Amino acid sequence: MGARKSIHAGKATIDVNVDFTHKLCTALMLQPFRDSGGPLSQVIGSLCIKHPNLFGRSEKLDVSWDKGLFDSNILIAYRRPRPEWLAQQSFIIQHSLSPEIGVHGFTTDNFSRSVSGGVNLSRFSVGMDLNDPASSNWSNTTSIRFEHVRPISDDGRSVSRDRDGFPVTCSGTFHDSMVVLKQESQFAKANDHSFTQLNMQIEQGIPVLSKWLIFNRFKFVASKGVRLGPAFLLSSLTGGSIVGDMAPYQAFAIGGLGSVRGYGEGAVGSGTSCLVANSELTFPLNKILEGAIFLDFGTDLGSGRHVPGNPALRQGKPGSGVGLGYSLRMKSRLGHFQVDYAINAFQERTVYFGISNLAS
Hints:
The chain is mostly beta strands. It is 2% helix and 56% strand. The chain has 2 helices and 21 strands.
């Protein structure tokens, strides 16, 4: 369900894509954190405007807006053409609003569901990205951005403490500010029988002002896929750590779809370090239907107590967890449909529904 429109303005073309797809991936896992504001509040949509020749010198302007049931993101990117052997520059302005469920949410039903704890994050950032020319199987991106993070309540008021009276920012005030230098490297190699991917990210908080956050955050994701006859085995390992000044929302949240299935978002734990392993075997059932069995494991490596305010301990999160289950996925011209059934270490069952890429 959607609409597409191309507007021609002289030699330039502006493409507008509006998608009002109703996705249910997380709707059954998260309860609404604010009251319905009318029919549009229940609509998931995206709008993208692209101008390929803004000032007549091949400058590109991309404006995108994504709206979920409980979150939104606005991104403005301006790109200037440069010789291929030089790093490509992009100037970025971004604002997002999302519920902070992973750290400050509450768990229910033996950790199988997570609900809002009344803390949402309003993030504003401005900066520049540099994409180095790809060499062999490697690609690198360097970025520097100013970020302003403001926690707000469900009714839109600025907050500095959670419901238990603990600070939700590093500064202890209603907002945190920081300048972040980020280096991201990606490796990808694939053939007809397997693929290998590696992603590494390093973020460094730069002390431009004394009150701004100083930290170092590292994260990696390694994936390996191997074809086994008609089936396909996919395994991945995700890990990370953060040291220095940090707010609770910067902790690694473990649990949920894309992490340890069978648990709510962040219901396994939240810590200054994490390790998550996923393994999944998919196999075709017919031309459009595919089945899968999966096993997930995640742990905070005992680092939950180092998060300011220790929110994981206050909520009784276990710190480690195992989830296993099976999945049915259907691909058709109307879109992709997916149902995941998972059970956690407390024998609590969770079902995830997903609908995506619906045709116009």
